[in-house]
Specification:
It is built from four helices and no strands. By secondary structure, the chain is mostly helical. The two termini are about 35 Å apart.
């Protein structure tokens, strides 16, 4: 917790015991590719083979644009 002042006030420790926090690391690029590729593959299951073949390229390109 921040020290009191500057718009912040101290918080009673008894109140803080009611809460807990945890940290999650953002997935690596490889993990994101696996996750999104599997989701997209499941979505295009009924599509023609030409579309199914593009799933990996679509996922890789989308993640590249995101970065």
């Amino acid at each position: 917790m921040l020290p009191p002042g500057g718009g912040t006030n101290s918080v009673d420790p008894r109140f803080l015991t009611l809460y807990s926090t945890f940290t999650l690391l953002f997935p690596s690029t490889e993990n994101l590719e696996v996750i999104y590729t599997s989701i997209l593959k499941a979505h295009v299951e009924s599509f023609p083979e030409e579309i199914k073949a593009l799933v990996k390229k679509i996922t890789t390109g989308t993640l590249f644009l995101y970065k």
